[in-house]
Amino acid sequence: MSRLRLPLALAILVVALTATAAWSYFKLAVTGESMAEAATKFLASLSTDQRAKAALAYDDKQRTDWHFIPKPDGAREGIRVREMDPEQRKAAHTLLKAALSEAGYNKATKIMELEGLLHELEKSKGGKQLRDTERYFFTVYGTPNNESKWAFSVEGHHLSLNFVVDKGHVASTTPSAFGVNPAIVMNDNVPSIKKGTRVLAKEESLAIDLYNALTADQKKEAVIADKPPAEVRAAGNPQPATDAPKGILSEKLTGQQRGILQSLIDEYANSFPPEVAKERLDAVKKDGPDKTHFGWAGSTKQGEGRYYCIQGPSFQIEFVNVQADSAGNPANHIHSVWRDMRGDFAIPLK
Predict the structure, then answer these.
(1) Count of domains in the chain?
(2) Residues 276-295: pLDDT tens digits?
(3) CB of 93 closer than 8 Å to CB of 162
(4) Considering 123, 146, 180, which residue would you say is the last residue of a domain?
(5) Alpha helix (H) ranges present in 75-225?
């Protein structure tokens, strides 16, 4: 290659790499804009009557009335998937995809799908009314655009996802709740849900790995109760529990143990798009290992209940698996949440 051609080739390579980096940055910077575009298209696909259900004022009093339990008809705002035609459902899921990462979207839709299994398992006790794969509600609060503040939620049994977008920036993604029943599918009751399916596998297994990696002295600090609680704290409350964090400080963990803890936190954060996850993780990093606690209660054995909490100044993760599943298998029913200790729903914590 001549002396003239080499610099030219290098210049082309630099331009190409710069363009690739710029495009990657562009993709990472558009979640809020993508959500606004998808929300606008979703609302446009609805009839006037449907839009009256799905589009509410940003300051609607029920915007912060969240939960992951199977509430009765009329208790949740928004429009149910069951009320949508195929094109409207497609638009709704496009919006959900814009708000979550691929991993998060897969978890959310599998949680919805598990309602079909619960319907089969609970036929004898009224499951037909409460267990429904299409009983998930989509609600848009305010006008989706890049100049003002608006919000969006998807909620139903074992799923509560709440977003606030402020001038194109995703300002809040909490509370976010993912739950599963069964935690591990024990039988082939529904052809589409295979035995062994485990939607929130890492949320549970990484915490067990971390607890098992602790020394006897470390466990004395990490264990916060003899028995796990029945539920995560402040479920359904507009703001998280503000009790002082308990458990072992991250700074007292070894490098390997701290790596497991970070992988566990990452698993929660990575249910959201890359730039949203980065903001969450940057805040966790800023909290520092001297202010981040890991608390544990219960057993590491399958079929025996367990609970953990990870908390720092900016965040609170809670996980509980104590309830039996719908087939009666003990401790096979998970509730997990991520809360913002600075304030959920983009509302500063007082």
Answers:
(1) 2
(2) 999 999 999 999 999 999 99
(3) no
(4) 180
(5) 86-99, 102-121, 127-130, 201-213, 216-222
